[in-house]
UniProtKB/TrEMBL annotation:
It holds the Pfam family DUF4015. InterPro entries: Divisome_Glycosyl_Hydrolase (IPR052177), DUF4015 (IPR025275), GH (IPR017853). Residues 448-457, 467-476 have a biased composition (Acidic residues). Residues 24-61, 399-509 are annotated as: Disordered. This is DUF4015 domain-containing protein.
Length: 509
């Protein structure tokens, strides 16, 4: 009888012991060593099982094939934004890039848990109720991208001069527009940008997009004195890539995508890359998305063999993206992954150019078609005034049919081929000639009236800037790269055509 009772007791203990770890809530709250640890202090398989159950899951990120538009912080916080959202609902647009830290260095909504933002009073609060705004965007199924201007930050530079670029005499450096820039070599600046990005992620943004992740390029830069204690022998391109890597590691851990705007002319050009600090394929190794600003008006006469690039939007976009594909092939050949390419496209008329055309539905659609024909799938439209050519966009149903046709056409291509032959039909047939679109004397176009030009760099500089402010009241920036010989891989000297870079803001610099 005793033996029978003993057997029952042993079985009962065995059963209860085996069921102990089915639920974490059944575990006793104690710091003492439990019976699942061996006498030697090693953890048993049962303890490992419990630890795996209690470890938090990695943040999940869902990719979206972005077709987007830029929205200033001012517009996002205004009643006029509702009209834009209603238009978005009727078209293929599924994403918005909203200023979170704008070109003036101001934060566009209140950030309660951002110590440096609040210390310097950076919040301007164009967007009064960020929670309500994000809820509305999510309800509409819109992917949200937070634009964060990085190193061109006159507000932070004035508030924290020790973090800013300095002249040899110790004074605060200002560009030829009188704006101070922060020092890309300073760790404190990096942490400030990550702080802003983290807060944007907390309110619900799906992606952080850095703009102005570069050095200024105007002639005043030769007055800047870089401290070896900051640079530590690192070049401009070294530090920009290092910042991108640092920011990506920090923000990606928050379950958010990270992207960056870059000049289109850095693709395949060491001169331009060294001038601004952006190496296209290096940066693409450390981002989820890379967004080249390849507006046709960026490029001067003769680029890609095109007489006047702004007058041939399809050809210019297609050529620029084929160059992107060639540059990124270096990364894939090394067996590495690179960022998805998502170019900025032009939805404004560059009437400040000598040779230009008026941009309308045909020109917008031609650029989009060029993206697809080059083998890419995503794009964002830039208009500093947030006035978009809605007639150039498809309805959601039409876009779905187009996507299916694109997939079928690519499936029919030979293996390893992702770019389709240029589509003749995509080129605007009725686009006016430059002469037909020239404004009457004394009547500048809307884009021109919002322009502020900047003095060009000296003749020895790699690039010249014609830069405009990118705040809610002004239009995009132009930058011109001077014609200088550039050495090819074979050591030959070739003349580099003038390049006009229109920087934007979500897309621009």
């Amino acid at each position: 009888m005793k033996k029978w009772l003993l057997a029952v007791l042993v079985c009962t203990l065995a059963v209860t012991g085996c069921s102990k770890y089915k639920q974490v809530s059944d575990l006793p709250e104690t710091d003492e060593t439990t019976e699942t640890e061996s006498m030697s202090g090693e953890t048993t398989e049962e303890t490992l099982e419990v630890q795996q159950e209690t470890e938090p899951a990695e943040p999940q990120k869902e990719r979206v094939r972005v077709k987007g538009v830029y929205i200033s912080g001012y517009m996002a916080g205004s009643e006029g934004f509702q009209a834009i959202l209603d238009k978005i609902d009727q078209t293929e647009i599924n994403a918005v890039v909203i200023d979170v830290k704008n070109d003036d260095g101001r934060i566009t909504f209140s950030m309660d848990d951002a110590p440096t933002v609040n210390e310097i009073g950076a919040s301007e609060r164009y967007i009064r109720d960020i929670g309500a705004l994000m809820a509305d965007l999510k309800a509409r199924g819109i992917y949200t991208i937070a634009r964060v201007v990085a190193f061109r930050d006159p507000y932070l530079a004035e508030k924290k001069p020790e973090w800013s670029l300095k002249n040899a005499d110790g004074s605060l450096h200002r560009d030829n527009k009188g704006l101070a820039w922060v020092n890309p070599y300073r760790q404190e600046v990096w942490d400030y940008l990550v702080e802003v990005g983290t807060q944007a992620a907390k309110v619900g943004f799906d992606e952080i997009q850095f703009d102005y992740i570069r050095f200024a390029t105007d002639s005043t830069m030769k007055q800047v004195a870089f401290d070896e204690a900051d640079t530590k022998g690192r070049s401009k391109t070294d530090i920009i890539t290092e910042f991108i890597t640092y920011a990506y590691d920090k923000l990606s851990a928050e379950g958010i995508f990270v992207s960056a705007d870059v000049f289109g002319t850095i693709i395949g050009s060491k001169i331009d890359a060294d001038a601004v600090g952006q190496v296209y394929n290096d940066m693409a190794r450390h981002l989820d998305y890379i967004c080249p600003m390849i507006y046709p008006s960026h490029y001067g006469d003769g680029n890609f063999g095109i007489e006047h690039p702004d007058t041939q939007p399809y050809d210019t976009i297609h050529a620029a993206l084929m160059k992107s594909k060639q540059d990124l092939a270096i990364v894939t050949a090394a067996g590495e992954d690179h960022a998805i390419v998502r170019p900025w496209l032009q939805d404004f008329t560059a009437s400040y150019l000598q040779h230009y055309i008026k941009y309308g539905p045909a020109e917008v659609r031609a650029q989009i078609q060029a993206v697809y024909d080059a083998g890419y799938d995503e794009w964002i439209l830039w208009s500093a005034s947030n006035k978009y050519t809605w007639d150039g966009l498809l309805s959601p149903e039409e876009a779905s049919q187009e996507d299916q046709k694109i997939a079928e056409s690519r499936a029919a291509l030979p293996p390893e081929t992702t770019a389709a032959p240029p589509t003749e039909a995509a080129k605007p047939e009725t686009a006016p000639t430059p002469e037909e679109t020239l404004p009457q004397e004394g009547q500048p176009s809307e884009e021109t009236s919002m322009e502020e030009t900047e003095a060009p760099v000296d003749e020895t500089s790699a690039s010249e800037e014609l830069q405009t402010s990118e705040d809610p009241e002004t239009e995009a920036t132009d930058q011109a790269a001077s014609a200088q010989p550039e050495t090819t891989a074979q050591g030959e000297k070739r003349s580099k055509p003038n390049v006009v870079i229109v920087t934007t803001g979500g897309a621009g610099e």
